[in-house]
Design a protein that fits this description.
There is one protein chain. The strands form two sheets. Strands 2-1-5-6-7 form a five-stranded parallel sheet, with helices on both faces. A two-stranded antiparallel sheet has the order 3-4. The longest helix is centred in the C-terminal third of the chain and has 22 residues. The chain is globular and about 50 Å long. The chain has 180 residues and is of the alpha/beta class. The protein has seven helices and seven strands; from the N terminus they run βαβββαβααβαααβ. Helices cover 46% and strands 17% of the residues. Helix 4 packs parallel to helix 7. Strand 1, helix 1 and strand 2 form a beta-alpha-beta unit.
Length: 180
Amino acid sequence: MTRVIALGASNLTRGLRTVRTLSRTTLGADTQLVAALGLGRSYGSYHRLGFRGLPAILDCGIWNALDHMPRAERTLGIVSDIGNDILYGFPPDQILMWVREAVTRLERHSSSIALTGLPIDNPARVTPLQFRIMRSVMFPSSRQTLEGVTRDITILQPQLEQLAAERGLRFVRLKPEWYG
């Protein structure tokens, strides 16, 4: 059996069916998908979205569950949706520390991990009004500005690329056409 462990937030939530279908088509029908995801999910901080709250990926039950699962013949990992923490106002160095810890924990279960980058082209394609609307709907407590998000993405993206290079992870650059 092959296991795919996926960590992420809203993009992974929206794309989970695709991840499952591709995993089973590519890796076999008996592929098991284990995920920590959710709209508004953070890697290192508890957050509430509407009436629902989610613990940080680092604090959720996936780690205990993985520790108690039987080993799979092959395990692949995906670390995605890192940008939420920028919109929550956490500094790039803090976010990198959380992602590094998630990768360290994932390495205990998988020798093949893909780390997705940030949507670096998106801020230039969004007007300040579009940004404020998106921020107020998806991150109502955020006070981040479009300029601040752009700055933090520019700082964090090369740090994520370096982390991937240091750990031998596959780094996936996000394409602008993947976002509306």
